[in-house]
Amino acid sequence: MSHTNWHFNLKSILLLCFVLSIGGSDCAGKQDEKQNEAQKLPQPDFAIPPYASYLKGFKICLDPGHGGDAHLPNYKRGPTGLREADVNLSVALYLREFLEAVGAFVFMTRTDDSFVSLGERSQTANRNAVDFFISLHHNFSDDPTANYTSTWYHRDADDSPASLDLGRYIQQGVADALLLPQFLPTGLYSDQLLFPEGFGVLRLTRCARVLCEASFYSNPEEEAQLKDKSYNRREAYGYFLGIARY
Q1: Where are the alpha helices (DSSP H) in the chain?
Q2: Strand pairing of 150-153 and 208-216?
Q3: What is the crossing angle of helices 27-39 and 11-22, to 10°?
Q4: How many other C-beta atoms lie within 10 A of the C-beta of residue 6?
Q5: In this structure, are residues 226 and 218 in contact, taking their beta carbons and an 8 Å threshold?
Q6: Strands 132-139 and 105-108, how do they pair?
Q7: ∠ Cα 167 235 215 (to 5°)
Q8: 85 burial class (0-12, 13-18, 19+ CB within 10 angstroms)?
Q9: CA–CA separation, 158 vs 161, rounded Å?
């Protein structure tokens, strides 16, 4: 993500969510159960559900976050050096395959390791009058145990109900695909929780738009998973099912 260390701004939210949803004394047990699920991910068949046919003709912009930062030492890298930018792009390319297979038109803000400004990324969506804009990211925290999915919409829920609904389905799709050891009851948040004006890439885009932080590359176990192309494809499939269900 372009906003480093925001995880600490959410610590109070995460703690409150855990207390309200599962109760303080059961927290550790539920976490262990979730971790066991994550270690035994079911084999996906990547089947195309019938309802995905409704995506035919939709125009979707995929924004794999970052790019062009390989020359910066230790910038947005996992414990063994995996670059967030590379994972974002890998997932986005797999997602493009799923979407194009059902007849959607896909526009990419980048298809290689190049730098694209926030304004240029938004303009790709605006210029092509796309229906959805989805910014794909993975998160970082100084806490190496942090690992959960979150999805962000711009400003207030009432500003763009379509963005809120899109975000809800993407959040559920990605979370179900990855089965991470930690979870938030909704995982869906306004970008104003982090910045008064929200995320630039969402603020400048005019269609239904969300930004998803699929998991934490700063978590050693998750970084190892993210190196696996089949795991990247699993994540992309989660996005795909979320978009199709929406």
Answers
A1: 11-22, 27-39, 84-101, 118-127, 161-178, 200-203, 220-226, 229-245
A2: antiparallel
A3: 100
A4: 19
A5: no
A6: unpaired
A7: 75
A8: buried
A9: 6
Closest to 245 in 3D by CA, of 167, 191, 185: 167
- Cα 19–chain centre separation: 24
How far is the CA of 196 from the CAs of 9, 78, 155, 185, 192, in angstroms?
13, 28, 9, 24, 5
> What's the pLDDT tens digit per position in 48-83?
999 999 999 999 999 999 998 888 888 899 999 999
Q: Which of 180, 152, 155, 182 is nearest to 166 (CA)?
A: 152
pLDDT tens by residue, 12-44: 444 334 333 333 333 333 444 444 444 578 888
Question: Amino acid letter at 194?
Answer: L
Q: How far apart are the first and last CA of the chain?
A: 24
Sheet with 105-108, strands from edge to edge, namely 105-108, 59-64, 132-139, 208-216, 150-153, 188-190
pLDDT in tens, 101-146: 999 999 999 999 999 999 999 999 999 999 999 999 999 999 999 9
Q: What is the largest CA-CA distance in the chain?
A: 52
With a CB cutoff of 8 Å and minimum separation 6, the contacts of 74 are: none
Distance of CA 114 to the CA centre of its chain: 20
Torsion angle of alpha carbons 154, 118, 6, 211, nearest 10°? 50
- The answer to whether the CB of 97 falls within 8 A of the CB of 143 is no
Q: Which two tokens stand for residue 8?
A: 């600490």
Task: Map tokens 């104003």 to a residue.
Answer: 192
Nearest-angstrom CA–CA distance, 242 and 227: 23
